[in-house]
From TrEMBL:
Protein name: DUF2312 domain-containing protein
Superkingdom of the organism of origin: Bacteria
Stretches assigned to the GapR-like DNA-binding domain: 2-21
Organism, as annotated: Bradyrhizobium uaiense
Molecular function GO labels: DNA binding
Amino acid sequence: MKDGDRQEQEAILDTYMQALGMLV
């Protein structure tokens, strides 16, 4: 596994959680 892939996944997850927070 590459570090870049992991960072990208975390960034996507962070954005997803922020969007979820706005919806609630």
